[in-house]
UniProtKB/TrEMBL annotation:
Record flagged with keyword ATP-binding: yes
InterPro entries given in the database record: AAA+_ATPase, ABC_transporter-like_ATP-bd, Metal_Ion_Import_ABC, P-loop_NTPase
Highest classification ranks of the organism: Bacteria, Bacillati, Bacillota, Bacilli, Lactobacillales
Domain ABC transporter, first and last residues per copy: 2-220
The protein, known as: Zinc iron ABC transporter, ATP-binding protein
Molecular-function GO terms, alphabetical: ATP binding; ATP hydrolysis activity
Sorted UniProt keywords: ATP-binding, Nucleotide-binding, Transport
Family that this chain belongs to: Belongs to the ABC transporter superfamily.
Organism expressing this protein natively: Companilactobacillus mindensis DSM 14500
Length: 222
């Protein structure tokens, strides 16, 4: 479980948000929504320990690893690694045969989970946008996370490809009880995949049932 208690963040004199309270249960699939600059990335950075809260508390089980999938960025055609090698990048390099065997099994399992087994030898630079994003997703699963943060990970992909990626994330959420926190500006995906939304409004966070999410929540000034 992740719980925020009166969480407040300032950068110098700038207040980003204050008195934020919420609970995210294991296995939840929630969206984190709100206009540009409202504090979504800052909040997940606090979850990942990359930023410190100004006051209040964020309670999160320190033993739970967090996976992070960034926004899609294209990769040059001549990028030197294939999909499997790219997924391996987050592993520590080791010469121990026992550890290497274990790593090979981990990679095999993750490629299967993310439906990349057939594509593992494809140079990443030649992969489609959706395949590249799946490779980032696979990389984020290396430390066996219990929480997955998708930071606008579907932005700039075609609609069909977005859905395929989200279907895969939904499968991981259901099969492995993975908690998913989806930062998004996408109204349709919020409605289709998430059950609750945490909505930044007036420098604080409101919990909204997905049936009450409206398009203007993605646009209003923060
Ligand atoms: N390291 C930093 N130093 C100073 N100000 C920062 C820093 N990081 C973020 N901010 C400011 O904090 C506010 C919230 O930024 P944040 O990136 O969390 O918003 P966001 O909701 O994720 O926006 P977007 O939807 O555009 O990605 C913004 O005004 C931003 O400029």
């Amino acid at each position: 479980m992740i719980e925020a208690k009166n969480l407040t963040k300032r950068f110098g004199k700038q207040l980003v948000f204050e008195n934020v309270n919420f609970k995210i249960n294991d296995g939840d699939f929630i969206s984190l929504i709100g206009p540009n600059g409202s504090g979504k990335t800052t909040l997940v950075k606090i979850m990942m320990g990359l930023e410190k809260e100004t006051s209040g508390k964020l309670l999160i089980d320190k033993k739970q690893n967090i996976g992070y999938v960034p926004q899609f960025r294209n990769i040059d055609l001549d990028y030197p690694l294939n999909i499997e090698q790219f997924v391996r990048l987050n592993l520590k390099f080791t010469l121990s045969p026992a550890k290497r065997k274990q790593d090979n099994e981990t990679i095999k399992r993750i490629l299967e989970k993310t439906k990349l087994t057939q594509l593992k030898d494809r140079p990443l630079g030649l992969a489609s946008g959706g395949e590249k994003q799946k490779a980032y997703l696979a990389q984020s699963l290396l430390n066996d996370p219990k929480i997955l943060i998708l930071d606008e990970s579907t932005a700039s992909l075609d609609v069909e490809v977005k859905m395929q990626l989200m279907d895969l994330v939904q499968e991981l959420n259901e099969k492995y009880n993975l908690t998913v926190i989806f930062i998004t500006h996408d109204y349709e995906l919020t409605k289709k995949y998430t059950s609750r939304a945490l909505f930044f409004k007036n420098k604080t966070l409101e919990e909204v049932h997905v049936s009450d999410v409206s398009e203007d929540m993605f646009e209003m000034g923060g």
